[in-house]
Amino acid sequence: ETAKPSNFLRQVIESDLEQGTYAERRWGGSPGDAEHHAKGMIDPARVRLRFPPEPNGYLHLGHAKSIWLNFSLAEQYGGVCHLRFDDTNPEKEEQEYVDAIREAVHWMGFGTAIADDPAHPGAPNSHQYFASDYFDFMYRAAEYLIGAGLAYVDEQTAEQMRAHRGDFNTPGVDSPFRARTAEENLARFRDMRDGKLADGAAVLRAKIDMASPNINLRDPALYRIRRATHHNTGDKWCIYPMYTFAHPIEDALEHITHSICTLEFEDQRPFYDWLLDRLAEGGLIARPQPRQYEFARLNVTHVVTSKRKLRQLVEEGHVDGWDDPRMPTLAGLRRRGYTPDAIKLFCERSGVTKSGGWTDYAALEAALRETLDPIAVRAMAVLDPVKLVITNWGELMGGDEVLDACSAPVHPHHPDMGHRRFKFGRELWIERTDYEDVPPKGYQRLYPGNKVRLKYGHVIECTGATRDAEGQVTEVQARLVPDTKSGTPGADAIKVKGVITWVGASDAVPCEIRMYERLFVADNPGVGELVEELNPNSLSVSQGYVEPSLADAHSDMPLQFERHGYFVADANAVASGRRVFNRTSSLRDSWGK
Ligand code: ATP
Ligand code: MG
Ligand code: MG
């Protein structure tokens, strides 16, 4: 294996391992342990990371970076990585998203094992968690803070709270409720929990410093009232913890060592540390606490990486669902024919840094082609068919119905992958663009008087074409040149410049072909009105033919249609018994042209 390039996170982890920062960690160090670590977990002293999506949509390319980063760091250092559903926002979260996220992480090749789920065995070093499983503990932590004089119930209106928070230049103003006693606060917080206050009537806030230059430390909200049914806890709660309160606690209860997030959370780090320091002082969580590290999020040109915007495309019907092959979701990329290896290679190459930037979509396609080329099964396909008739076939072969077997390697560099077989005959399908009455300059394909090779078949000489009343070619005619069959002695005696692909009319399999262009015309979509930036030509559908070897192609098999690019059988179509092929990408870079 080649050495992985270092990055600042690898350096942090290596230094922690060297210094034994977490070496003394044991289960049982915190009250949460007894409740939450009955899942056959391994040594808590190991490097322990997490990927914490909120189940409010499907995962996208940006998430792939985070999945790859956390799971592969854990793998590299013999640690573990938790798939944790950060489900503290009941209105937006759904079981459908939990399932889709799990499926996507699993597809990426990272286990999401849960002890009681034989359907998803996963890797032994990964576990699945829900933030909502910690609601009881979080509630106790909140009561602890209240008791310690570190939190209070604020009953200002949202507007007053906003006005009193101040801004970058102006210190905030203390809430009139800030001076309440711990007893009053505790009673009021229990009223919140018991449903005695209306939604939005009060919040629990940390009592830190309304004049802090870091606005995140100006008494951030910890709990809000929200009567909403939760996908996991149902109607048990009418108060829910805020993300900023919940997240550090989740990390601490799971004994995360390095809590890796994107740069937007840098200003939250002081609160993360404040909270965990206070809870450790109170004996609620174990030391050493997890630490937060930030890296630059992945931004890819031409791609929207925001669940909210992707949801808009789905809900307004601009795409055919979250798994539309034009979507940058992992489900969409998968259906388009992208592979986990291509995505992981792209993530690795995009680097892990502290400063943001844009990665060119072409880099993803390059990684895709590089990883598909060695494995893609080759086949011939005709995307825009026109009939080719070999007018001297019967004469040469002793009958129009006689067929001639041809073969080709499944992969040009892997003889072990075997051969495909298909039949040559009097009638074939070729590409409409492979014929011209009058050849443009440099055109080497079919025109009257020109000879070309039908790949893996024979050399033919074009004699003309028939057109309909509209001038559309309905049939091309040619004569076969005897003794030129590929792979037979003397086949190359006649030199031809053009080689074209084809499928035999006798055994070709009809199919639908879906060609995709970029979903957005803008380089950086989402800056303007998203919908106005959509590319009206992002999908074109045609009826074509593929060679018989693809009659039962399954959707996890990367294909290369010779001359045309990488393709894959559409998973949804396969499931409903239809034959549809999605173009994954062209053979060469055409992005940005
Ligand atoms: P979105 O804004 O699309 O909803 P999010 O960050 O709110 O994304 P989460 O479900 O909270 O979505 O994300 C889970 C994890 O994925 C987080 O740790 C987040 O930092 C990470 N992540 C999300 N987008 C990116 C990105 N573009 N690059 C790297 N990591 C990302
Ligand atoms: Mg988020
Ligand atoms: Mg978000």
TrEMBL record:
A single Pfam family it belongs to is tRNA-synt_1c_C
| Signal sequence residues | none
Could you tell me which PROSITE patterns the record lists for this protein?
Answer: AA_TRNA_LIGASE_I (PS00178)
Its keywords, alphabetically, are: Aminoacyl-tRNA synthetase, ATP-binding, Cytoplasm, Ligase, Nucleotide-binding, Protein biosynthesis
What SUPFAM superfamilies does the record point to?
Nucleotidylyl transferase, Ribosomal protein L25-like
Kind of enzyme, top EC level? ligase
tRNA synthetases class I (E and Q) anti-codon binding domain: from which residue to which, for each copy? 499-570
One GO MF annotation is:
ligase activity
Every Glutamyl/glutaminyl-tRNA synthetase class Ib catalytic domain range = 47-371
Q: List the EC numbers from the record.
A: 6.1.1.18
Catalyzed reactions per annotation: tRNA(Gln) + L-glutamine + ATP = L-glutaminyl-tRNA(Gln) + AMP + diphosphate
Q: What is this protein called?
A: Glutamine--tRNA ligase
Origin organism is Variovorax dokdonensis
